[in-house]
Design goal:
The chain is of the alpha+beta class. It has 5 domains: about 140 residues, no CATH class; about 100 residues, Phosphorylase Kinase, domain 1 (2-Layer Sandwich); about 190 residues, no CATH class; about 40 residues; about 60 residues. It contains 23 helices and 15 strands. The radius of gyration is 30 Å and the shape is globular.
Length: about 575
């Protein structure tokens, strides 16, 4: 498991110090140095950041969001993955940053073939030449976590072998420690950002990237995905070669065909395919994943879609998958159905059921904004109505009213948006709402099925019976504790942390000031009394006292305790 150790002072850990300095230099380089000043990062370094180069690249024509994306790209694999995940969370970052981080590309130089041989030898217990009939030393693709090579098994099966980048786990662990420290500092210094719980975001990110580092989990995803898609004859999923797969090596069937990204870039390539058919079956496949099985490919971008010569579609890369419950699927469909029926009241009520919020929004205002979204989209010509545009507007609406969806629902919405836009790139006339109707009807029939009613009611009833059964024993336990004097009621005070922190810092400053004053007065008395031992006719103890007072004084002047903002 990935571990996130706490960092109390960066300079204590050489690995963290070097990486931290590299991160800060990149932040300065892309004109984001004000963030360092706001967070008072210099307080965590022995010499501060006085001597750091603040040289910036010339990016006058770039927005701040673009500079953040460029910085993430240069910061490397961990930050690229974090940016990609943040791009699915409009509840955490604004639309400008959301759009920009979605452009992050996970393409890096490949690592040497010798390293590939070493990892395969360690993981599969033999030389590449003995394990594979052939193995192409030139990678098909190289990403931050691993790279992919084409090979042939002894049985003659064409496969792709995904090999994890050497040392990537240690790199990610070091970056996570620094991210966690930065998140703690952000929570401490920026009140608005603290509401989003940056440390919790880092912990969630660590959980996600831990799964991407374990290729056994990705293999399991591929097998489950294949099971879900088995009834769709036009959808292909690569088979997993378990005997050639481990935590750091994953061997999958090679799907022949052309990537959708290549077809989009070069329309001449697309001329040999029936793109209208491809668009339809691709969109239906994503809707099937979400609304029938609740298990879906969370990143169906053009690079992860293979179009085969017989107009079938193949999905690849199962590192990030999404899950939604039947209840969540039904509520989401009801939101879309309310939009189609132009029922803003129904849509507003369903949005509240799908989200969490601190303060309930003013319903009349929410309904008015929903009505505007409906008016702006549903009265366009049918071929111009885009589900993606409606969903993006709804996401902005949730942010406006501080309504928060669960992360898995953001993934579902993002997958829907990507799938529709890819399908419309192949067929601009595609009517996504027509494709949605059968899934909506299927979910409704399933909901009205008496068997499902009984199943839904039985579990809460069992819980109620269990709770009623436990009440006497729980009361007995409470009474016994009260009788023994062990009954305690705990109160939690909230909002006192900034005050306590300020008091602690003030007490430290006062302590330093008292010691400084005592050293100055005491040293002055010693010098005035001319007490031995003497050094150049001046009392040595007095000189030492003045030097110590000078050090403390410089410390107070150059490195004052930072204040919360």
């Amino acid at each position: 498991m990935l571990t996130i150790r706490k960092i109390r002072r960066i300079s204590r850990t050489y690995r963290n110090l070097r990486r931290y300095e590299q991160i800060i230099r990149i932040i300065f380089k892309f004109g984001l140095g004000d963030l360092i000043d706001t967070l008072h990062i210099n307080n965590f370094f022995r010499l501060g950041l006085k001597f750091f180069s603040r040289r910036e690249v010339k990016l006058e024509n770039h927005t701040r969001a673009e500079r953040v994306r460029l910085a993430f790209e240069e910061l490397g694999p961990t930050f690229i993955k974090l940016g990609q995940i943040l791009s699915t969370r409009p509840d955490l970052i604004s639309l400008e940053y959301l759009t920009e981080l979605a452009k992050l590309q996970d393409n890096v130089p490949p690592f040497p073939y010798e390293e590939v041989e070493n990892i395969v030898r360690e993981e599969l217990g033999g030389e590449i030449g003995d394990i594979f009939q052939s193995f192409d030393p030139t990678p098909l693709a190289a990403a931050s976590i691993g790279q992919v090579h084409q090979a042939v098994t002894p049985a003659g099966h064409k496969v792709v072998v995904k090999v994890q980048r050497p040392g990537i786990r240690a790199i990610i662990e070091a970056d996570l420690e620094i991210m966690n420290h930065l998140a703690e500092v952000i929570e401490h210094n920026i009140r608005e950002a603290a509401l989003q719980k940056p440390t919790a975001i880092v912990e969630e990110f660590a959980r996600i990237i831990e799964k991407e580092l374990d290729y056994i989990i990705e293999a399991s995803h591929a097998r489950r995905f294949a099971q879900c898609m088995k009834n769709l004859p036009d959808i292909c999923v690569p088979a997993v070669f378990d005997e050639l797969s481990t935590t750091r090596v994953l061997t999958l069937e090679l799907l022949p065909g052309t990537r959708a990204s290549a077809i989009i870039k070069n329309p001449d390539i697309g001329a040999k395919f029936n793109l209208k058919h491809v668009a339809k079956i691709g969109a239906e496949a994503v809707l099937e994943q979400i609304f029938t099985y609740g298990f879906f490919h969370a990143d169906p971008h053009p690079g992860n879609i293979i179009v085969q010569n017989d107009n079938k579609i193949g999905f690849i890369d199962f590192g990030m998958m999404g899950h939604v419950s039947s209840r969540e699927r039904l509520d989401f469909i009801r939101v879309l159905r309310g939009i189609i029926k132009e029922d803003e009241n129904h849509v507003a009520q369903r949005l509240l059921k799908l989200t969490k919020y601190r303060n309930e929004p003013e319903m009349s205002q929410l309904q008015r904004d929903v009505s505007e979204i409906i008016d702006e989209n549903l009265f366009l010509p049918l071929e111009k109505i885009e589900l993606a545009a409606i969903l993006e507007q709804l996401m902005r609406l949730l942010t406006k009213y501080e309504l928060t969806l669960k992360p898995n629902l953001y993934l579902m919405i993002k997958a829907t948006i990507i799938a529709e836009r890819l399908a419309r790139a192949f067929d601009p006339q595609l009517k996504i709402f027509d494709l949605l109707k059968p899934f909506s009807a299927k979910l409704q029939r399933r909901r009205l099925n008496p068997t499902n009613w009984c199943n839904d009611l039985s579990e809460p009833f069992d819980d109620l019976i269990e709770t009623l059964t436990d009440i006497p024993s729980n009361i007995r336990i409470l009474l016994n504790k009260a009788k023994r004097g062990n009954f305690k009621i705990e109160f939690e005070h909230r909002g006192l942390e900034p005050l306590l922190d300020t008091l602690e810092k003030s007490s430290h400053q006062i302590s330093y000031a008292v010691i400084l004053a005592a050293l100055l007065i005491g040293s002055s008395l010693i010098v005035h009394a001319n007490l031995p031992p003497l050094w150049h006719d001046v009392p040595a103890i007095g000189i030492i006292g003045f030097v110590m007072a000078g050090i403390i004084g410089f410390k107070l002047l150059l490195f004052p305790a930072h204040r919360k903002k």
